[in-house]
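Troubleshooting: if your tokenizer reports a length mismatch, compare your output against this known-good record of 731 residues.
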Amino acid sequence: MTADKSNNSFETTGKLKLALFSIHGLIRGNQLELGRDADTGGQILYVLELAHALSRHPDIERVDLFTRRIIDASVGPDYARPIEELSDKLRIVRITAGPDEYIPKEQLWDHLDGFADNVDSFFRQIGELPDIIHTHYADAGYVGAHLANLLGIPMVHTGHSLGRVKRSRLLASGLTTQDIEERYNMSRRIEAEETALATAERVITSTYQEISEQYELYDHYQPDQMRVVPPGTDLKQFMPPVGDELNSDFYAEMVRHLSQHDKPIILALSRPDKRKNIVALIDAYGQSPALQSLANLMIVAGNRDDIDDLDSGAQEVFHELLVAIDRYDIYGKVALPKHHQRDQVPLIYCITAASGGVFVNPALTEPFGLTLIEAAASGLPVVATEDGGPRDIIGNCHNGILIDPLEPDSISDALLQLLTDQTLWQQYASKGLTGVREHYSWDAHANVYLQVVTPIAQHAEQLVRKPVQRRTELYRDRAIVSDLDQNLVGNNQSLQKLVNVLRQHRNSTLFSIATGRRLDSALKLMKKHAITEPDILITSGGTEIYYAPKLTADVSWARHIDYQWSPQTIKLILNDYPGLKLQPKIEQSRFKLSYYIDPEIADLDDIKRLFHQEEQSVHVHIAFGQYLDILPLRASKGMALRYVADRWRLPLERIFVAGGSGADEDMMRGNTLAAVVANRHNEELSQLTDIERIYFSRRPYAEGILEALAYYDFFDSCKDPDETKQSHASR
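Known-good structure output:
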């Protein structure tokens, strides 16, 4: 049975029959068990709401949602029903595959071919085929590709979460590559994703950033294949204020720590995560007397009874928030409510809107930005990071101002603009209410969706694929590591040449930056010079490791280096040491103490002896002749690099390291392919002149990196030519 005119409902009725596939998890028509387990989450809700929205559309004849049939008393009888009719145009079709009982998606791979065969039998039994197959996640993509090729039906795919990016997050959590493969069948998942991309006529994503940060990592990625259709949002529970919000008991509880209740509220609502960058909002507020006189600041950062009971990351965030509040002495102007219920979130937005306030999302990275849509649906103008999803949302709704999350003045200027211009405030509030319903409701999603898939069903559009070359390795097999200052940064013209080279080889080569700067400082410099986001970002001299695309911190590394580390003791030891001056707080971090050093007065060897006498095991180095960093014994750029290489299973011999100061030395020694980039601080690395596998570039900055990459033939043979000559000579 293959698709032909007799089976194509669109040819006869002008209406589409759609087959949606979401195989894993627990799906039923009502009372979804969201959060019951890892497989029953946002994707399940997304697919079911999409199915409902499409079934309501007049140009749709029928929507069938295919999932796996589960006969298991532990999950109840609903998931055993072969057919569940949800309306006259929508039904859930459950297909038998594998064991009767409920199993996690990682155990489904051996049963997916049987699932595909049983779907084919179902189509034969009912005597008709869908016009479009739309698959969700890798497992459904595998099944859909099989059916699309077997039956000649066009396929559309939505990945939701991609394996190459998921693997990075799992490595950051402390799992090894072997753990990941054994638990998650990651290689099968990634192969299934490649197959889905190789088959699909269109791939639907939520944001443009999702394309650049995730899909571009795949061999079968086709730019013309991608379509951005923002997911719909259930807006029924979010609405503008009706007038009595500021008289509620909940409002009184939320603002009880504020001295003046009658001011507009600046609201930030997120989990206590460093990437949410909430402390930057306090910096912006604390540094602006004008903002303090106009408005109060309210930060809703999850629920807590005792900060000490939270995980270490959340504790660190609250510590930074409380220290910043104290630094600016803004007590009575900032509220940090401890508790709220999930169903009270719409009221929090309403209270903020009723006060004449503004919603702020200052995150360092924001893949989508659901809170911005919720705020807009509540009649709130927004101020949001220019990174990721907010660009699309504000671009569609025209209801707020994009800011640089790394610049406090950018945040305060945007807030002042909205809080001092009532006409602009009303204009943005009104446009937000209109825009979210026009662009972010499920009905709006269905309209755009049909614009994408209808020409495919009509065979009026067909993807013309560009030639692709599959890599020999499933994962990237080499890496480029460079410092920022005096290496990447220095000549923008040569830097852009290097950025283009990195992008060209993105599928085979990991790009990493290793810097002594703190995360926020490094991001600011990268942004200033338009440096592409690295796959791995090593900051604070090697004490912190982050992975793209969401700057996921490697918690396992933090645990590893937190060994015999006593920063307060170190400060006391160096308190009166001549020639040293502690750098500002902004340059300090949890595992890094930074000083200015005058080498004419302070002696590095003497400082090391002093630490030895005081039984302090630390790592000490000087960079650029004036910066002294003290780190835990287990931490350095070189240690971090080797840790990453081990976790990613990258041979050191296939890692290129570019350095330009003494802080880079331990990255460059050993088995890596290294280069000292020409700059005025080369004397700090002059002792490396006669060491194998270290090339001294004649050119400076990024041009010197390109010179060294060519010397090592890095993207091809990836070898030191001197070693090759010696090998030939010895034969």
